[in-house]
Amino acid sequence: MEILNYINGQLQPALSGSWLDNYEPATAQVYGRLPDSGAEDVAAATISAKAAFPAWAKTPVGERARLLNRLADLIERDLDKLAAAESRDQGKPVALATRMDIPRAVDNFRFFATAIQHFASESHHTDGAAINYTLRQPIGVVGCISPWNLPLYLFSWKIAPALAAGNTVVAKPSEITPATAYLLCELCIEAGFPAGVLNIVFGLGPKVGQAMSEHPDIPAISFTGGTLTGATIARTAAPMFKKLSLELGGKNPNIIFADADYDKALNSAVRSSFTNQGEICLCGSRLLIERSIYERFRSDFVAKVKALTVDDPITNPDLGAIVSQPHFEKVLSYIQLAQEEGGKLLTGGKAVKVSGRCEKGWFIEPTVFENLPNSCRTNQEEIFGPVVTLIPFDTEAEALAMANDTVYGLAAQLWTENLSRSQRMSSALKFGIVWVNCWLLRDLRTPFGGAKASGVGREGGWDALKFFTEATNVCIRY
Ligand code: TXE
Questions:
Q1: Alpha carbon nearest to ligand 1 atom 3, residue
Q2: Which residues line ligand 1 (CB under 6 A)?
Q3: Burial (CB count within 10 angstroms: exposed 0-12, middle 13-18, buried 19+), residue 103
Q4: What mean pLDDT, rounded, does the chain reach?
């Protein structure tokens, strides 16, 4: 597959003519190439987005919504093709891409096409002498930078509200998983998007992403990715006072009380630990389990994890391939670290050899450790792979203290049938999201994002539309 930049409505290679290899994680083979773009491509994309902005911002909201809905329809039409491309490019089971990634990309476009038509702003009567209202207008050219774990899903999560709100966009998907973003370019052309409204530049983060962060004509950036990268973007953008929305890493606790619905908690723990090979920022990686059920839970959990299959993504195993060789090595190095830190390996721990076409692919067994204190590196650093630890606790206070004892604050899970406890814990957990008796149950209207080192700002619903607009308070004296 040859991928091209989408700039000013045209598909074109990088201006330098350089290319990057694109790998299939399941086979570790190069199967395509993408533009190795640079600052000059970002500059061209920004000029095109800037030129398209006045007309797009004035396009009636119903027409913008119609185009977004048309794009959603085309994605839905091509669901199987897109899911196959996502699975091949990312390593995830094709059934997961078919069930989750691509339908959620469709939902993102449809949701924001509708939301923008309901978007309203507040007004205030001031002492019977004036009326204040808030005018929310598009910002201009905005930048969207997305990661490799849920490629089209997270790319559309940013592009859809940015476009709906009337901005024009320069976007960069991860260089590790560019395929579905390229297929989206083709669908934008088919949908009849005006030239320059959406521009997609493919290439490396430190070149393309960095050039976007530095560009003076991109005053707002929405980024999802690693915490270190988020810090780099923030450092670059701060002197220009850019608006930033940063969705970063996590080290999420999954707290299971003895009074939980045991089977539901157990089954969900398997899912939230290993879905997408554990490569979801919302995965629970520290399982905190009340001591009175610890032994039983450990034995049932390990039995279920041992039964999970790891195989060629096209055969729909439970776990597919790890996204890239560097990431595969990073996850294995954490498995090694866990052992050096005194962790007891309960299952997994090794790379998996899949025979046939996948014999060189990057596969890792779902891995479970115990006997590691919450303070060790394994329990503090984001592994972002199929590795979890089990930690017993005695009291609610101890569970809460361990859950919060992390630099991250993205998502916590809580399993209890005690309503009062769920309320107490939810308000004391320092996380952007608390799931009580569920996981990954998403409502696109809710604020999505993390506290502490997990990010700055919230996306989703009104929060996304507020991020992608600039507010002007208009005060009219009467
Ligand atoms: O992500 P990067 P990486 C975590 C996870 C993972 C770690 C590193 O722990 O192991 O981050 O992953 C672009 N300026 N998450 O290094 O680099 C890059 O091209 C601007 C959590 O692969 O952060 C890609 O498009 N952009 C996460 C995007 O940033 C830059 C999902 C994300 O990649 C850039 C992914 C720069 N200087 C990883 N450098 C989540 N929160 O879901 C890179 N990029």
A1: 226
A2: 145-149, 172, 174-175, 205-206, 209-210, 213, 224-226, 229, 232-233, 247-249, 281, 382, 384
A3: middle
A4: 98
62's CB contacts (< 8 A; 6+ apart) are 117
- How many of the other CB atoms lie within 10 Å of CB of 476? 10
Tell me the C-alpha distance between 277 and 149, whole Å: 10
| pLDDT for residue 349 | 98
Q: How far apart are the first and last CA of the chain?
A: 63
- The answer to whether residues 87 and 209 touch, using CB atoms and an 8 Å cutoff, is no
Q: Using a CB cutoff of 8 Å and minimum separation of 24, what contacts does 17-22 make? A: 20/175, 20/202, 20/203, 20/204, 22/89, 22/178, 22/179
Ligand 1, atom nearest to 232 Cα:
37
pLDDT of residue 340: 98
Task: Please give the Cα distance from 15 to 25 (Å, whole number).
Answer: 28
Distance from the alpha carbon of residue 399 to the mean position of ligand 1, in angstroms: 30
pLDDT of residue 52: 99
The 10s digit of each residue's pLDDT in 279-337 is 999 999 999 999 999 999 999 999 999 999 999 999 999 999 999 999 999 999 999 99
Cα–Cα distance for residue pair 444/431, rounded to 1 Å = 18
- Kindly give the parts of the chain with pLDDT less than 70: none
Spacing, Cα 230 to ligand 1 middle (Å): 8
- The rounded distance, in Å, linking the Cα atoms of 158 and 153 is 9
Catalytic residues: 247, 281
Q: What is the pLDDT of residue 277?
A: 98
329, 252, 463, 75 alpha-carbon torsion, rounded to 10°: 50
Question: At a CB cut-off of 8 Å and minimum separation 6, what does 300 contact?
Answer: 266
